[in-house]
Amino acid sequence: MPRRPPSARARGLGAELRDLRLGLGKTSRAVAEGLGWSPSTLSRLENGLRGITVEDVAALLVVYQVTGPERDRLLALAREVDRPGWWETGLPGLPNQLTALIGFESQAERITEVGMLLVPGLLQTTEYARAVMVGGDVPAHEIEARVVTRLGRQALLSRADPPELHVIIDESVLRRPVGGPAVMAAQLQHILTAASRPTITVQVLLSALGAHLGTAGSFVLLEFLKAHAIVHLEHLRSSLFVDEPGDVAPFMQARDTLAQQALDPTASADLLASVADEYQGR
């Protein structure tokens, strides 16, 4: 059974504690030995893989000589580490990987969605999301709860401090009539509206490009202010996170290459509007 992914809050707090240690030039072994811990314990704590307690953080802050408001802030973060988000309450049955993804999205500074088959979830309309669920053979009694969850994820785009969202989609996504012409016309108009926000960029990869790095599969790249970037890969019945920096690097390179190959945002908007008009004329 795959391990439960670390929470976004735990990864963020762990990254801050690691930065404090590195800023003082201390090795993880020296800090761990001074506290009577094993080096692996400290490593897992800094990577969000081990439950962080307020006592753990308080002990580390003594070693790092952190006092005053900064100490209070970090201890407050420690108290919040295990507080469930909205996606972890009231919606039973959501897979651990999905709840982890939503948590990471809520903490990310920048999100890149490379979509080769469908409109990424953060930009889906209600009717499009419902059609995806129906076509994906989701049990009828679960569809509405999953649609609500998907739409709930989008609230982060309207926050006072939203993450940057960069969406790169294949032209085939625009032309796949999920839900029928009316649903697709509304969906493409929704993308156009979203793309008008200063924090959202949408680019389209033309089918005429032929093979490119995106044809290897869709992925979500999440980048954080402190913690290492991670990648989410979704499959038919499972999904996984890639979090080792060496494994994440090729996805970051693929993002950059695909952004160069795709239409620029203005040309992409023109294509989206043109295809939306085609659907409206059917």
Helix content: 40-55%
How can the largest sheet be summarized?
6 strands, mixed
Rg value: 21 Å
Number of self-contained structural domains:
2
Strand order of the largest sheet: 3-2-1-4-5-6
CATH class of the largest domain: Alpha Beta
Rounded average pLDDT: 86
Low-confidence stretches: 86-91
Protein name: Transcriptional regulator, XRE family
GO molecular function: DNA binding
Domain HTH cro/C1-type: 17-71
Note down, in words, how this protein is organized.
This protein has 282 residues and is α/β, with parallel strands linked by helices. It folds into 2 domains: 8-80, 434 Repressor (Amino-terminal Domain); 94-280, Endonuclease, Chain A (2-Layer Sandwich), CATH 3.30.870. Helices cover 51% and strands 12% of the residues. A 6-stranded mixed beta sheet has the order 3-2-1-4-5-6, with helices on both faces. Helix 10 runs antiparallel to helix 12 (265-280). It comes from Frankia casuarinae (strain DSM 45818 / CECT 9043 / HFP020203 / CcI3). This is Transcriptional regulator, XRE family. One of its GO terms (molecular function) is DNA binding. Pfam families: DUF5753, HTH_31. Residues 17-71 form the HTH cro/C1-type domain.
Descriptive tags:
Transcriptional regulator, XRE family, Cro/C1-type_HTH, alpha/beta, 12 helices, 12% strand, 434 Repressor (Amino-terminal Domain), 6-stranded mixed sheet, 282 residues, Endonuclease, Chain A, single chain
